[in-house]
Amino acid sequence: MADANAPYRLKGDTGEWEVVIGLEVHAQVTSNAKLFSGAATAFGAEPNTQVSLVDAAMPGMLPVPNRECIRQAVRTGLAIDAKINKWSRFDRKNYFYADLPQGYQISQLYHPLVGEGSVTVLVDEKDEASARTIGVERIHVEQDAGKLMHDQHPTMSYVDLNRSGVALMEIVSKPDLRSPAEAGAYLRKLRAILRYVGSCDGNMEEGSMRADVNVSVRKPGDEFGTRTETKNVNSVRFVMAVIEHEARRQIEVLEEGGSIVQETRLYDPDKGETRSLRSKEDAHDYRYFPDPDLLPLELDDQFIEDCRASLPELPDAKRKRYEAAGITAYNASVLTAEVETARWFDGLLDAGAEPVRAANWVVAELFGALNRLGRDIADCPVSPAQAAELLGLVADGTISGSIAKTVFEKMLDSGDGAHAIVEREGLKQNSDTGAIDGEIDKILAANADKVAQYREGKVQLFGFFVGQTMKAMQGKANPGVVNERLKAKLD
């Protein structure tokens, strides 16, 4: 496996090249209304059924900022330790397209709501030394455009304005990323933070989170090269593929004596390649100016502190808490990667489960079972309280670890509690030394030759005797007692 701490380099005919990556992540704000109107934002609605007069740009309609959208953006900024700008302003970004009924997009260019922050990622979740801190330049709030549908008519394109005016946070990273793996780790971590905070559902398949991928290449140590921007990439895997393809394409162009054109590109996942869409516009091409219909946003200290107080325990803090309880760094990383997993695991701890044993069980047993069932933890058929009951029966010696696996399978099938299954099916672990001694005596008598070999130094036969005893007692004997009694009789 590649060393996550080694610099990522691509080899060309003229030597090694370094990749420089920046991501502009568009995250749809969790809200029951759009940024400047009261229209709904539910995914999958019939075309043009969630469009207010403001969204359709009817004459005389004036935008009014949605307080909840602003609050969620501020909470997101606080979650990445970013500077919150108490004074910010909306600008008009002017361009003409069929899915933009106003002829401009309301955005924030010069004075964004959120300033600089950072996100710390583990490129390899098993290796603490692979930590990287990625700078975030800004988070600004803007409205989304509508959508053109090209597959509804043989000669015409239709317009769906359901997304028109939906609130987006554009989270702009600094050009600090240096490999596809780093970009993937950053996007996964950012998605996790958004989902913990509750400011975006992070559903990339539905388009509520997508990334514009900026890529350039240079010889290590040189100045930044000319970048391209690949628009609207909607999965972590595709973002990593875009970087790989685009970097290699640029290296090939440069090594053949060509130059990179600053342009916007699209990714074709079927072909695994990017293609040119249009030359990249500079800011002045959009004729930005302050939106005359909107006053600047002015936030007071109390609003910001209320936003801060509303934040939950975030992934890094939760991971450190788990590690302080003795959970391995890897397990802690896995358990905090998704907010649903972390909430389920916290429920397990709240129900009294011992942290280390619980973490090992969730990562090894529960995840495996859910994978087999094709379900996720939000749809887990076993509740945290039921899981804590199962682990408690193992901890107090009522059942063995192997019987626990059987009980767990029955819990998944029936939904019944562990204690009820153990009682109903007579699965209690037997710690009766008399009964165990009786079975051991029979096994030793039937295998006198192996007993002699063991006593002559073939100590690996001890496992054979343990297995035979457990088999004779149908797996219900207490393994600790079996080991203790066998040692006493053999030694």
TrEMBL record:
- Enzyme group, top EC level? ligase
Entry keyword set: ATP-binding, Ligase, Nucleotide-binding, Protein biosynthesis, Transferase
**By its UniProt entry, which InterPro entries does this protein fall under?**
Asn/Gln-tRNA_amidoTrfase_suB/E, Asn/Gln-tRNA_Trfase_suB/E_cat, Asn/Gln_amidotransferase, Asn/Gln_tRNA_amidoTrase-B-like, GatB, GatB_C_1, GatB_Yqey_C_2, Gln-tRNA_amidoTrfase_suB_CS
Q: Does the keyword Protein biosynthesis apply?
A: yes
EC number, UniProt record:
6.3.5.-
Q: Which reaction is the catalytic activity of this chain?
A: L-aspartyl-tRNA(Asn) + L-glutamine + ATP + H2O = L-asparaginyl-tRNA(Asn) + L-glutamate + ADP + phosphate + 2 H(+); L-glutamyl-tRNA(Gln) + L-glutamine + ATP + H2O = L-glutaminyl-tRNA(Gln) + L-glutamate + ADP + phosphate + H(+)
Gene Ontology terms for molecular function: ATP binding; glutaminyl-tRNA synthase (glutamine-hydrolyzing) activity; transferase activity
Q: Which GO terms describe its biological process?
A: glutaminyl-tRNAGln biosynthesis via transamidation; translation
**What range(s) does the Asn/Gln amidotransferase domain occupy?**
343-490
Tell me the superkingdom of the source. Answer: Bacteria
| Family stated for the protein in its record | Belongs to the GatB/GatE family. GatB subfamily.
List the NCBIfam families hit by this protein, alphabetically. Answer: gatB (TIGR00133), PRK05477.1-2 (NF004012), PRK05477.1-4 (NF004014), PRK05477.1-5 (NF004015)
What is the documented function of this protein?
Allows the formation of correctly charged Asn-tRNA(Asn) or Gln-tRNA(Gln) through the transamidation of misacylated Asp-tRNA(Asn) or Glu-tRNA(Gln) in organisms which lack either or both of asparaginyl-tRNA or glutaminyl-tRNA synthetases. The reaction takes place in the presence of glutamine and ATP through an activated phospho-Asp-tRNA(Asn) or phospho-Glu-tRNA(Gln).
On assembly, the entry states: Heterotrimer of A, B and C subunits.
Name the chain's protein. Aspartyl/glutamyl-tRNA(Asn/Gln) amidotransferase subunit B
Species in which this protein is naturally found: Sphingomonas kaistensis
